[in-house]
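Exercise 7. Predict the joint structure of the components listed below.
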Amino acid sequence: MTINDLDTPALVIDLDVMERNLARVADYAASANLRLRPHTKTHKSPALARRQLELGAAGISVAKTGEAEVMLSAEPKDLLVAYPIVGAQKIERLVRVAGKTSVTLALDSLAAAEPLGRAAEAGDVRFNVLVEVDIGLGRVGVQPKDAPDLAQAIRKIPGLDWRGIAFYPGHIKDGNDARLAELSQTVAGLVHDFRAAGLEPEIVSGGSTPLLFRSHDVAGLNEIRPGTYIFNDLNTIASGACALEDCAASVLATVVSTAIPGQMIIDGGSKTFSSDRLSSGEGGFGRLMEAPGAFFHRMMEEHGFVDLTKAERRFTVGDRVRVIPNHICVAVNLHEVCYGIRGGEVETCWKVEARGRLQ
Amino acid sequence: MTINDLDTPALVIDLDVMERNLARVADYAASANLRLRPHTKTHKSPALARRQLELGAAGISVAKTGEAEVMLSAEPKDLLVAYPIVGAQKIERLVRVAGKTSVTLALDSLAAAEPLGRAAEAGDVRFNVLVEVDIGLGRVGVQPKDAPDLAQAIRKIPGLDWRGIAFYPGHIKDGNDARLAELSQTVAGLVHDFRAAGLEPEIVSGGSTPLLFRSHDVAGLNEIRPGTYIFNDLNTIASGACALEDCAASVLATVVSTAIPGQMIIDGGSKTFSSDRLSSGEGGFGRLMEAPGAFFHRMMEEHGFVDLTKAERRFTVGDRVRVIPNHICVAVNLHEVCYGIRGGEVETCWKVEARGRLQ
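Solution:
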């Protein structure tokens, strides 16, 4: 079966590029002496998590309880839920997950920690806990100065084992050396403050795809949790962390209308690509690989509007194009299946098993 | 079971509001002597399509072949695929659908029409065809002056029965009387041109939710295809076609972090709401029903950032809020299940069966 036999829109993964991306980051992490704990929210597929573990990942990360349940089948040695888990139903499910593998939680409040500790006790399991610290993104996490106190309080909760610190530097892009230096200083200060309080953070977990290859410049960091690097996307290119040839994922689409002069409509819109804009603020919803100069400037739910006035080639109804999305993590979540291609051949396909696991 | 027993994030539908929305539009269509053919891309659920048919809908609309297949179980008398169907696999599947119910297609090219005609002949079925006309949106559709010629050409294709005209006035909002008058003139001119060419368009199909209750002002229009009206959303309010109390759908979410002063994080972001902006261009990703003054200003994949600096109440971790999305059609497509509530009781739930049917 070749790529031409696939119906569209279809999410296709270039397996050679994906393997190269996986190997590059595994090698980097090993050489920088960093534990690699890939975030599986990007691919949502246990088969790919298993591949990441085979290449040396120390564990995996998930955001949702439902993702944790699905990822059990990848048999991770440790599973980090990098999201504050709140609510009795999720806690009960996490206790069951912790009965099957080691579970680590990143938490920023006692309000979240206490019921988790009680449930662990009652369920005869233990949760490892990292204290989530806000290092400038302003999303979740206690302020650095408050972090040792939260760790002290968590240490007193039966059922929980405090293990270290987690943070997410999503606001810092590769190339911004001043902010990177600031981050390094903040993290070093954090570790210092923990030690001054008599706490030794065994795990200092941070890292994102944009900052990935600068992780060794963050003093004290010993674990990274990149997600997007397995596929990459236009945002990763814009952040400077990869080149166009490192984008493994694209959406195969068909031209369904050329009725409006200077424009074509492809058979995917916001329900296929997501409506995520480029983080740079630039316009456009994806890059058409076969159409230099074409501009994918607008979307409706199932319609992609491509301006062809500056395109180097003409298109007719039925033509196919491959489009690299702005943000692959949200795009993957819209697809039931990924097709793995090598050359023009469809070598494999897999279900996006944790797709839509919102809870 | 009450709404408090639902895990979050969860898509909840207020059944009283939904029924009122359905009845209002069914009554309007009947009184204005318009055939109602609801677009099911909003709810993607055969159970709700069945309800629309019970209330007098003449048929239903879908965008995708996969949606057509799913909607067969609602037993529509006629199923309009309001999207140019291109590609051998989709055509083959549509022939099978046409073996089970009457199928109408909206097309804007012979390139799309001819293979459909050949397949219908070979499969011993027939397709009704509407000529899709661009009445100013600039998405799909031939120019009005070219529409009669396309209809003439389609009439010569065995397997296809030309039945009329389709268009989508998605660029015109309620209240813009000048553009509405222009639309009415364009449609009247179209019908005139068809008749002058010896063609009687039995179906003149247009209409959207924003323009819904002005459909009787479009001369010659005899069929409307609104989708969003069953639930409504912030965009519908902004378009003037509904009020806040007509929004039937909301996302139930939990506060998972209040660590950053003046802000809370809820457990849904772009994978729960979609990242669709308001069509007005205003900021914000949803309206929190229980938090006047709160501003849901930013999203990451699983994090909703709510600015509380102007909110009238305080929140703590574990609190729950209901959020009306900007655009309900893309939000529904991210959920596996909808919960139907009446008062505080969860009365029913249903699977979003055509969710993710991209092909």
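Discussion. The mean pLDDT of chain B is 96.
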